[in-house]
Amino acid sequence: METVYLETTFISYLVAKPSRDILVAGHQQVSVDWWTNRRSLFECFVSQIVIDEASAGDAIEIQKRLAVIDALPVLRNKPESEALTTAIMASGILPPKAATDAAHIALAASHGIDYLLTWNCRHIANAQIIRRIDAICRREGYQMPIICTPGELMGEEGPDAE
Asked: Is residue 159 part of a domain?
């Protein structure tokens, strides 16, 4: 069974109150569709970083996010993950404020996860950044997970499936 690391933005879109913003509402619906129709085809993981990020903010939203996370296995941080995070950050590809984004990628790569599911298109699911971080992962001896949004991991059940 293929593996998926669920980054915090996916969890947040999955359980958030419906948005009036059409783009956000679309992301929310795709997240629900993926969770409903595709989740069972993958072994899904989170990390302590996801738990920490999901534990911030509105108390009701925290409860909803943690209810989803509670049923998922947690990848442990290990020295290899920390070393890869350091290598990614030392490259200057990401700004210092995006260290947790680098850590998400490093955790997934160091654990051999197949996919990293995210809605963070600024620092994670960004084609220019992915290419450069992939080179660092390979240099450090890891295969970077395929970084994608839920819509990109819909398979045959995608919105354009016939």
From this structure: no
Strands 42-47 and 115-117: unpaired
Query: pLDDT tens per residue, the chain (162 residues)?
Result: 999 999 999 999 999 999 999 999 999 999 999 999 999 999 999 999 999 999 999 999 999 999 999 999 999 999 999 999 999 999 999 999 999 999 999 999 999 999 999 999 999 999 999 999 999 999 999 999 999 999 999 986 544 544
The number of domains in the chain is 1
Give the number of residues written for the chain.
162
CATH number of domain containing 103: 3.40.50.1010
- Is residue 91 within 8 Å of residue 132, measured between CB atoms? yes
The model's pTM is 0.93
